Amino acid sequence: MSYFLTEEQEMLKELCAQIAQEKILPVRAEYDETGEFPWDIVKVMAASDIYGVYIPEEYGGFGGGVMEMCIAAEELSRVCGGISLAFAASALGAYPILLFGSDEQKKEFLPAIAAGERLAAFGLTEANAGSDAGAVETRAELDGDEYVVNGTKQWITNGGEAEIYTVVVRTSKGTGIRGMSCLIIEKDTPGFTFGKKEDKMGIRGSTTRELVFQDCRVPKKNLLGREGTGFVVAMRTFDKSRPGVAAQAVGIAQGAFDEAAKYARQREQFGKPIGSFQGIQFMLADMAIQIEAARALVYHSARVVDSGAKDIGKLSAMAKVFASDVAMKVTTDAVQILGGYGYMKEYPVEKMMRDAKITQIYEGTNQIQRSIIASAILKESAAKEKKA
Amino acid sequence: MNVVVLIKQVPDTTDVRIDRETNTLIREGVPSIINPFDMYAIEEALRVREGAGEGTVTVMSMGPPQVDVALREAIALGVDRAVLLSDRAFAGSDTWSTSYTLAAGIRKLEDYDLILCGKQAIDGDTGQVGPGVAQFLGVPQVTYARKLTIDDGSSATVERMLEDGYDVVKVPLPSVVTVVKDINEPRLPSLKGKMKAKKAEITVWGSDDLDVDQEELGLDGSPTRVVRVFAPEARPGGTIFEGEVEDTVESLVRELVPILKGDI
Ligand SMILES: Cc1cc2nc3c(=O)[nH]c(=O)nc-3n(C[C@H](O)[C@H](O)[C@H](O)COP(=O)(O)OP(=O)(O)OC[C@H]3O[C@@H](n4cnc5c(N)ncnc54)[C@H](O)[C@@H]3O)c2cc1C
Ligand SMILES: Cc1cc2nc3c(=O)[nH]c(=O)nc-3n(C[C@H](O)[C@H](O)[C@H](O)COP(=O)(O)OP(=O)(O)OC[C@H]3O[C@@H](n4cnc5c(N)ncnc54)[C@H](O)[C@@H]3O)c2cc1C
User: What residues contact residue A148 under an 8 Å CB cut-off, 6+ apart?
Assistant: First the structure.
């Protein structure tokens, strides 16, 4: 099937598939078991230039955009939706700098991220600020040339492993979203430590950890944009990163579908391959339809985002909701097609089902995505009426 | 440190089919890859260059124009340049004339410190080309290298894999070294490498470009004649005599006597 990729994009896809097959496949079950961080794979991806695909050439990248980020995330996730996050979560952490960084900040931080020498991470969520991202309590008080940061971020992907953190903090009194700002905080800054490392259901090859700030002094020059724009930084970042989560979901779904189709041809019951039963055939057909539809929406949203279009929030939320719901459905059906074997760890589909679930939760739950979509629709409708 | 790597394009299969008429390999319809052992040679060459901090890595192959793909794959891995020796006159070369032609190609490069080869090709399997090239160039050879250290610009220390251990050999440069899988773990290509490979110019040399005796080339220059190609017959299993020693010796003698007498 042609997806009208450019020659460079085809090359990227081929390379990521090679990394996934040759390097990730042999170790994915082990990382799922141990929950360790896949540094060996990070090194391979870095040497292959994968970390720079969405970063402009002037900052050491390959010059692609969200589409390139999606292609990489999809191909890697096809084999392991957990290990792929060592790439995708670094992109999430880098986007605030790409979108709001000054030329100096970009020059300082992006080349190392593009080279995969330093990983990035994004810290927004706190114990009391999940879906309600405006409720962030981590404080940053200006003291001379430095912000003094106090608070705890939780469930931060790449936490403890990444070296460059974009962290959403509260810089002015009160609770509103206008009192929030985004700081670049480097690992090894005094007062910045790492807390609890989570033991998770899925994406276990990805590290999820607490960031703890105790009188952590961050140079003022590490402020992204202006004070008070932290919430906007987070939302614009998600507009760009959500197609990436959607691509991760498509990859996981495709990986599970491939296993199910193969199994349906090989497994015999009642003297025939189970793939000859219409009940199984229709499941496979529905899985394939959903995956194609999800991929089409993901690629479309990524291309629209890369075109520089405004108001991309609705479309990228749609891609994230649809693809992640498809991933959950398809991986569950893949386990069903493999029957009891699908439930066992000897086969990879149970892991894919566990990995798929997170795509419906992080970077905004699917309920929150639907709210974003609905409020955009209602706004558009009102605007139309005004014109008429 | 300038390193030349000899690579062979081979069919991606262990199931080699043979043309009964010509007794040559059937290559049509079988995807081609770089001989797996040569991937280790490429990796080692890149490491030698990186270790030295200067120099170039050149890959060279003798074969038909399709070998272009294999050479570009090597460039994507980080090789600096690629030379293809291709000419109708080279067709049908055995290991003698393959080695002769490759040696002539290397001589034309002039500036080389080290030549790396795989220990053998997975199709031809002879393991003769590396040593043959060394002989034609008049340089030393070390086969089955599992570790290679460049001492200084003028010598290398090589661990040679043996069945029950290893040799440590010090060899002056330039030399030919053939490598085994244990020597390293080959890298994957990079995106920048793949882009470079797409645009790279592949140098192609024919027999006219080389200082060669036309009579040593190709089928005519090949002393090997493949008389017949066949799968070896399965050897019948031996007989095991079980029981007490007296009884088994007796049984053995009973079986042996007619054979020794020439009755069977
Ligand atoms: C493995 C993992 C990795 C993560 N990585 C990161 C990271 O790198 N950086 C980061 O900042 N965060 C990260 N997160 C946090 C993640 O983004 C949040 O978990 C997510 O936004 C939801 O917040 P919550 O878990 O507090 O759920 P809640 O907000 O407590 O939601 C609970 C339930 O209520 C629903 N709900 C809430 N509000 C509404 C509403 N208004 N309408 C309808 N339903 C609603 C939700 O959809 C959900 O079903 C990660 C989380 C996990 C599990
Ligand atoms: C079934 C069969 C039939 C054959 N029929 C004929 C025939 O009819 N006529 C005939 O002349 N020969 C024939 N050959 C020999 C064939 O040409 C050899 O494969 C060839 O000379 C290389 O030898 P090799 O494959 O054994 O390589 P090896 O000596 O095992 O290779 C060792 C290393 O040498 C290098 N190398 C080998 N070949 C090349 C190359 N072309 N370019 C660059 N580097 C190279 C690589 O580094 C490789 O790892 C036949 C071989 C087989 C198996």
Answer: A140, A141, A142, A215, A216, A217, A218
